[in-house]
Amino acid sequence: MMTPMVRAEGVVKRFGSNEVLKGITLTVNRGDVMCLVGPSGSGKSTFLRCINHLEVVNAGRLYVDETLVGYREKGDKLYELHPRDAAAQRRDIGMVFQRFNLFPHMTALENVIEAPTLVKKTPKADAVARGKELLDRVGLSDRMNHYPAHLSGGQQQRVAIARALAMDPKLMLFDEPTSALDPELVGEVLDVMKALAKSGMTMIVVTHEMGFAREVGDSLVFMDEGVVVESGDPRAVLAKPTHERTKAFLSKVL
Amino acid sequence: MTQNPERRGSAGMPDSVAPDFVSIRAVKLRHPWRWVIGVVLLLLVALVIIDAAQREAFDWPSVGKYMFDRRVSLAALTTLELTVSSMVIGIVLGIVLAVMRLSPNPILKSISWFYLWIFRGTPVYVQLVFWGLIAVIYNTIDIGIPFQQPWISWETKAALSTFALAIIGLALNEAAYMAEIVRAGLLAVDAGQDEAARALGMTWFQSMRRVIIPQSMRVIIPPTGNEVISMLKTTSLVTAVPFTLDLYTRTRDIAAETFNPIPLLIVASVWYLFFTSILMIGQFFLEKRFARGVGELGRIKIPSSRFAGTAAVSPSLADPDSGDKR
């Protein structure tokens, strides 16, 4: 049997006295696309950031590819990871942000080849070849030498996806990737994500795009106030939500 | 009407919204008072110049004589050396202090804060006098285990020249100001940048070097340029150490021999202005270098039609190399 890509067991995250995640338990299988939906403040983004160790989990266990995230387990004790090892863990996990977060002082191509050459020590020529290929894949082969300020939001987000893919991640996290975009630019980013899902990438997508969830999602998780309220096949959940809170939320966004 | 009625019809537009656009040719509004004020001011400036050229106290022949006097040009060079050395040390120490101030370690934070409190809270002139008296306070410089016989020991007076003390005094004072400038620059970079860098697997140092610092330079350079210019002029205070070979002190000493201070003040001012002008040119090019990727939107023509369709590639676009390759 194949091991899951992500396994969360009772994950709790607190900011001071504010408990944002109250015991999240879920699994994401290899090659699956999981869509995380829910009202703002429900902890979706925080959970995503925990997977990438941008936030430290306070309780429970979080495994990516059967490796514990953020800690080293020895006997029954947990040890905090050295920043260097945490950085190494993040290498295999790609992340795409709501606000793109491209490096504004680098061109699109420079953005894409930066991490491979700096972190993985990929030879420059190889990184450039791969970067060009990735930018071509997201439809931006004619925008390689443009700075982010000269690109539309949709184009910036596609560069951001190419930048994450350049590290050859085994898992891609999307944190509301289309929420900061003008409506007419959402489609081009979703198209790239759909193609990526088809290629077999394991993806966790925090989104409000229910059409995307229905079309490419293998599972849908509805979160509210730090707990998983309901989960299952996206088409089933969206068509027939069983929980009141899910019904109330979906009636607002659909 | 020059427009083709057939085309208008096919566009489905009523005749009334297709006017002929003739460029406006209005009579220009006159601004007589602008001219009057301009002419008056020009006359005044001319008067001041003519007067200054003839005024004996300025003693222009002496100005010309001392401008390239060997003692003066050597002093100008010394002032430049003082400026460059103390700025370099000040910037490096300032970066260290800024990073300490932003560190999560409370002790590093407090030490940095205390340093700034002392060095920004006292006049640089007073600090320079203190450095001049350092040999009185600490007779020797020792290296070894504290409270034991030192391994090596120097006599302070012999080890540190007044020139070195002047640089130390200026640099340590400057570091306090540079620390605040660097800190502001680092804080000005969006937190998402560091997050994106770390999500790509970069370490703190890699993110700092490749992502954060290059972006903060845009914020750091303009005030640092100010600091360099300010430092050039602050070097005139090193007479407090006392160090006497800088531009101002040297010209003042020459004036004391000739009993003619005014032309030498002009000589010193012209030299300071000359260096300041060069520094301003340098700053202009540095700022241009670190403005990559921001502003300059006008450099690339972006047709609005490029958003039509999804990931479609429009062949009509200018070639991508027309971007910011400089």
State the end-to-end CA separation of chain A. 37 Å
Order of helices and strands of chain B: HHHHHHHEEHHHHHH
Q: What percent of residues of chain B are in strands? A: under 5%
Strand order of the largest sheet of chain B: 1-2
- Oligomeric form of this entry? heterodimer
What is the CATH superfamily of the domain at 66-290 in chain B?
MetI-like
Pfam family, one (chain A): ABC_tran
Domain ABC transporter (chain A): 6-250
GO molecular function (chain A): ABC-type amino acid transporter activity; ATP binding; ATP hydrolysis activity
Family (chain A): Belongs to the ABC transporter superfamily.
Q: Which key terms come to mind for this protein?
A:
heterodimer; A: 254 residues; alpha/beta; Rossmann fold; 4-stranded antiparallel sheet; 9 helices; globular; B: mainly alpha; MetI-like fold; two-stranded antiparallel sheet; 13 helices; 65% helix; 2% strand; disordered N terminus
